[in-house]
Design goal:
The chain is globular and about 70 Å long. It is built from 10 helices and 18 strands. The protein folds into 2 domains: 256 residues, Rossmann fold (3-Layer(aba) Sandwich), CATH 3.40.50; 68 residues, no CATH class. The two termini are 41 Å apart. It is an alpha/beta fold.
Length: 372
């Protein structure tokens, strides 16, 4: 993993790092550039209601079976005991639903990205435009948070119907309209769970040993959560385990979800990935991406995919961080332990020691605070 130091204004640094990455590409590469990640949010609205036109906003209506369809409807679905309608008011107009027959519930669906998310999307799309004639294949990608959304809204997201207006304008400006590859968080979560976690649960001890000999990692339950240990990162400063689940219910971690995303990229034949994120949108995104890619790499084995992660951190002395990791770099190193059991034992010992040291530091910090 390489980290490049940066200087000068942040905007110019980011563009310089992207162009530096572009220069190392091979004309035969299949490239995917990701930026602009945002989350779709749902908010309950009290009845009666007047729907107001807002940027990147639609409304989900629950209606009784015999209720009339509302105005400005863009989607309609009928279920066993109700109907669902998605309404988008025309620009600068309202939809008055006070007293609307059979209306039982209204939810506001917002898909408005932050300023930094818009900027990362712009950078990604412009890079795709520059590479159109320089590599064999290049596509822009967008990761959308849809966890917890009603199924009908997830389907709507999957169809590309909830792309922010600023993103649509950027795609049109760069002559890329209709060429955006979508990754849904819920789909990536399921893929990561199926390809990594569920597969590991089915492996017997002989299979675990063979996997360690071949690829240098093992997965096991530790303190009620499943974790991954590997030769490649056993010496890192953070805990020498990558958690795959959060609790006893085996809820996937963000790292496992992102692993599902990178696995999908590899299955699409991608050989070079560039992902652009900003810590102002997620303070832990750099670690999450790195861990997700590491999990994916162990799953992909011999796939020739390289990934470059650009993380913007304007509060750091190094406001533009560039991490580069290849699948083969993770899996093709020397085996450092006698067996998967040996790796597991060492990882547990180091994790316990790291946790004890962290607890000691936290205790000292509290004591100093009390003295002050």
């Amino acid at each position: 993993m390489l980290t490049y130091k940066s200087s000068g204004s942040i905007d110019s640094q980011i563009e310089a790092k992207i162009r530096q990455w572009e220069e190392q590409l091979d004309p035969k590469d299949h490239v995917m550039i990701e930026g602009g990640h945002f989350t779709v949010n749902v908010h309950e609205i009290w009845l009666p209601v007047v729907l107001i036109s807002k940027p990147d906003t639609v409304y989900l209506l629950d209606l009784e079976i015999e209720a009339p369809q509302p105005p400005n409807q863009i989607f309609y679905a009928r279920e066993k005991n109700r109907c669902l309608s998605i309404v988008r008011p025309s620009q600068n107009e309202t939809v008055d639903l006070r007293g609307w027959p059979g209306l039982t519930r209204v939810r506001e669906i917002k898909f408005h990205p932050s300023k930094t998310e818009k900027e990362s999307f712009r950078l990604a799309v412009e890079a795709v435009q520059r590479l159109k004639t320089r590599v064999e294949k290049v596509v822009a990608a967008l990761f959308i948070g849809d966890i917890g959304l009603p199924t009908v809204v997830k389907d709507f997201v999957r169809e590309g119907a909830l792309i922010p207006e600023s993103y649509r304008r950027e795609l049109e400006h760069c002559s890329l309209a209709g060429e955006l590859f979508l990754f849904l968080e819920s789909v990536c979560r399921n893929r990561g769970k199926e390809r990594v976690l569920d597969r590991a649960k089915r492996e017997d001890e002989n299979q675990k040993e063979e996997i360690y000999r071949q690829y240098g990692y093992t997965i096991f339950p530790y303190r009620n959560i499943y974790s991954l240990a590997g030769d490649f990162f056993i010496d890192r400063e953070r805990f020498p385990l990558i958690p795959l689940t959060k609790n006893e219910q085996n809820t996937p971690t963000c790292a496992l979800i992102l692993a599902g995303k990178y696995i999908k990229m590899a299955r699409e034949g991608v050989t070079e990935v560039l992902a652009i994120y900003d810590k102002r949108d997620d303070a832990e995104i750099r670690i999450k991406n790195w861990e997700g890619l590491t999990i994916a790499a162990y799953n992909l084995g011999d796939h020739p995919m390289n990934c470059t992660l650009i993380t913007v951190d304007d509060l750091s002395r190094e406001p533009v961080l560039v991490d580069r990791l290849s699948v083969r770099e993770v899996t093709h190193g020397e085996r450092r332990f006698m067996s998967s059991q040996h790796l597991m034992s060492i990882a547990q010992q180091r994790t316990h020691s790291a946790a004890a040291e962290q607890c000691s530091q936290d205790t000292c910090s509290v004591q100093r605070h009390r003295q002050i």
